[in-house]
């Protein structure tokens, strides 16, 4: 089973690779790709794999952009943090999905589904993907949060979306920081917040930071195509945007 994994979180890609090899020791992991740009380039210059495991949200955009640029002949198994209801439209015979965190029994079922496919059914289901793409990306049914409830001393405080400067992962916790520089511990991971926040107003800058567009002070060129982000109020440390995310960040800012 010649396999390609498209996943922008290195630890998640490594974990999926290990699970696949545990279930199918003879599988070949041809490549692990991290971005839309990298995936398009690889798929255009290499023989297509037997199966493609593909995250929906990548560092530089949606994985749907890959399939708009590549004449895909391989079946796809999507991996996603969306809930089951939101991705029901993807449940077609030759295209499955795995809900993160990926469980080994679910992975086994997806691989068996792939192995049982007949070529005729595969072509029909690939056409289903193309129809989805022509109609635009699937909009998840996850409600976007407009406010957060936080603890302030012995009381509960409501913080509106417009008051939030950024979310910061620090020493195993996630902090909400408002424009008054107040910091509140919240019970969400950055991955969970990324799905719940309005993408027009918040951007996942790196593994530590989700920033509000109103908190961006400047972004300066950094080493190897990266950007050094400065926020107001100031986020601690050097907040660097990777070269893979730099173009998406500029587009988000409408530069």
TrEMBL record:
It comes from the Bacteria. Residues 2-115 form the Response regulatory domain. One of its GO terms (molecular function) is DNA binding. SUPFAM superfamilies: CheY-like (SSF52172). Signal peptide: none annotated. The modification 4-aspartylphosphate is found at residue 55. Keywords: Phosphoprotein. Residues 148-255 form the HTH LytTR-type domain. Pfam families: LytTR, Response_reg. This is Two component transcriptional regulator, LytTR family. It comes from Salinimicrobium sediminis. The lineage of its organism: Bacteria, Pseudomonadati, Bacteroidota, Flavobacteriia, Flavobacteriales.
């Amino acid at each position: 089973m010649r396999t390609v994994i498209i996943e922008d979180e290195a630890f998640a890609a490594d974990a999926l690779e290990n699970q696949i090899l545990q279930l199918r020791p003879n599988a070949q992991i041809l490549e692990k790709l991290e971005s839309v740009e990298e995936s398009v380039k690889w798929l255009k210059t290499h023989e297509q794999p037997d199966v493609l495991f593909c995250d929906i949200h990548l560092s530089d955009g949606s994985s749907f952009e890959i399939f708009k640029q590549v004449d895909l002949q391989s079946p796809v198994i999507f991996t996603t943090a969306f809930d089951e209801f939101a991705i029901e439209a993807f449940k077609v015979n030759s295209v499955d999905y795995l809900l993160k965190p990926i469980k080994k029994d679910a992975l086994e079922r997806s691989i068996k589904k792939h192995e049982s496919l007949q070529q005729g059914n595969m072509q029909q289901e690939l056409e289903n993907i193309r129809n989805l793409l022509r109609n635009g990306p699937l909009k998840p049914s996850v409600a976007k949060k407009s406010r957060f409830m936080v603890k302030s001393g012995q009381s509960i405080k409501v913080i509106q979306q417009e008051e939030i400067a950024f979310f910061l992962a620090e020493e195993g916790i996630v902090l909400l920081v408002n424009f008054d520089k107040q910091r509140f511990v919240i019970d969400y991971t950055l991955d969970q917040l990324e799905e719940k926040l309005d993408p027009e107003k918040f951007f996942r800058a790196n593994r530590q930071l989700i920033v509000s567009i109103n908190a961006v002070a400047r972004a300066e060129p950094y080493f190897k195509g990266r950007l050094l982000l400065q926020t107001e109020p100031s986020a601690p440390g050097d907040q660097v945007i990777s070269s893979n995310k730099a173009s998406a960040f500029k587009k988000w800012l409408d530069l």
